[in-house]
Amino acid sequence: MYMGHFAIALGARRWLRSLPLAWLLFASIEPDLHDALGSWLPALGIGEATHSFPGILYAAAAVALLTALLFRRIGLALGASLLVLSHVIVDYLTSWLPLWHGGPHAGLHLYAIPWADFMLETTTIGVGLALYARSPDLRRPARAGLVAMGMVMVGLQAVWNFSMASG
Ligand SMILES: [Zn+2]
């Protein structure tokens, strides 16, 4: 999944607004950040295990611990770990990923059907932004900006699906 991860983080803010938005975004794309870190510093990489069940459970536990230490609330730690878990769960819809390191691969691989992936991610963007918009602490100008943000997200998703899509 591509833009959908960010939409999930934005939607989760409705319940986790004591956490900085940057932290929610970090938790929702942690497995991809670990992939990027691994290609930059191979010693810290774990290859495709970032998107396997054991890998994601370790990552969710690590993010939960870090969140508990930094923000001192168990509920927030659980919420952040659920965001990490959400990453791989939705990636199994769009990709073809190992169940465990060296294990069999599974997934719907919707990236191979760009229109289907675009519909799924656009729906996720709509739901995520609708949830975000219902955050009680949001001021009116922030709500007004959401439509523009949604259009940018759908636009980036379209570029991803229809001119860059790989596998
Ligand atoms: Zn991913």
UniProtKB/TrEMBL annotation:
TM annotation in the entry: 55-71, 78-100, 112-132, 144-163
What does the UniProt keyword field contain?
Membrane, Transmembrane, Transmembrane helix
**Highest taxon, organism lineage:** Bacteria
Q: Does the keyword Membrane apply?
A: yes
Name listed for the protein in its UniProt record: LexA-binding, inner membrane-associated hydrolase
